[in-house]
Design brief:
It comes from Falsiroseomonas selenitidurans. InterPro entries: BUG, Bug_dom1. This is Tripartite tricarboxylate transporter substrate binding protein. The chain is built from 11 helices and 10 strands. With about 325 residues, the chain is an alpha/beta fold. Helix 1 packs parallel to helix 2.
Length: about 325
């Protein structure tokens, strides 16, 4: 589901509940900072969540897009906000990737933010051009090993999640390919469809329509089971690559110092919102699963991700241009 299909859902006005905010809860409008431009799933999920929270809390919840520098501009704004519970950050894998790419990053995602909850997960899918001749992951790995550096993969830019997702796969399989960066993963996918690039890794949401149309072949998806949206595509585990499990994820954080009681209440309210049939259906249509977690579980997840991507960046020698 793209932004055009979700516009009718997002166009509905926010409806305030009649109940007043609980004692001790901060009054005023809540702000969700999205560190990317409008139209991405990060942005769409924030707007869907804002609608649900507005009704639940009886306060307006607004989304503010602060894109730039791979998500670091918006994250910096959230870190520097007053920790009163009225400013939240809704971000994705980039939060854990940025520390390895930006030596002068003005914040530490592990200490300058309080994790509130994970809200969604989406599998990665390996997309190849139909004429490549590799019908499964094993055949692709064999082809890459026979011709090191001859095959190419596209991404949404140097150091992007799509770039590092592929570098992780190359690490796991012991292969080498040519990286061709583009401005956004959609542009990379279009080049694969055109046959000018051999493959790309993207979120399931980015690739599902192309696989269904037959313009791209899906060779593998991450996760413990096949994706309901593309049940014909095997998992990497089935394909013999059990150590490749890169998932796209999205979560909510707040500035360091946000009161624990407020974080707990936010986590509860987000959990309620994630059970909304409208939100669950919209997430599923975009190839994502609504996923609620405790603050502690989310903090541990981000810490693992920071360590993972630091290792990938160092092994691949990735540097921003």
């Amino acid at each position: 589901m793209n932004r055009r299909h979700l516009l009718p859902l997002l166009a509905a006005p926010f409806i305030l509940s009649r109940g007043s905010a609980a004692q001790g809860w901060p009054p005023g409008s809540l702000r969700i900072i999205v560190p990317f431009a409008p139209g991405s799933f990060t942005d769409i999920s924030a707007r869907l969540l804002a609608q649900e929270l507005t009704g639940q809390l009886g306060q307006s919840v607004v989304v503010e897009n602060r894109g730039g520098a791979g998500g670091t501009v918006g994250a910096t704004a959230a870190v520097r906000a007053v920790p009163d519970g009225l400013t939240l950050l809704l971000t994705d894998n980039s939060l854990a990737i940025s520390p390895s790419l930006y030596p002068a990053l003005p914040y530490n995602p592990l200490t300058d933010l309080v994790q509130v909850s994970r809200i969604a997960d989406s599998p990665s899918i390996l997309l190849v051009r139909p004429g490549l001749g590799a019908r499964d992951v094993a055949a692709l790995v064999a082809m890459a090993k026979a011709r090191p550096g001859a095959l190419s993969f596209g991404s949404g830019g140097q150091g992007s999640s799509a770039h590092l997702a592929m570098e992780l796969l190359l690490n796991v399989t012991g292969t080498r390919m040519l990286h061709v960066p583009f401005r956004g993963v959609a542009a990379a996918i279009n080049e694969v469809i055109a046959g000018r690039v051999d493959m790309a890794i993207a979120s399931l949401a980015s690739g599902v329509a192309h696989v269904r149309a037959g313009t791209l072949h899906g060779l593998g998806v991450t996760g413990a089971s096949r994706a309901a949206a593309l049940p014909q595509v095997p998992t990497f585990i089935e394909a013999g690559v059990p150590r490749y499990d890169m998932m796209y994820w999205w979560g909510v954080a707040a500035p360091k110092g946000t009161p624990e009681a407020v974080v707990t209440r936010l986590n509860t309210e987000i959990g309620t919102a994630l059970r909304s049939p409208k939100l669950v259906e919209a997430f599923a249509a975009a190839g994502a699963s609504a996923t609620h977690s405790t603050p502690a579980a989310m903090a541990a997840h981000v810490a693992r991700e920071v360590a993972l991507w630091r290792e990938v960046v160092q092994r691949a020698g990735v540097k921003l241009e």
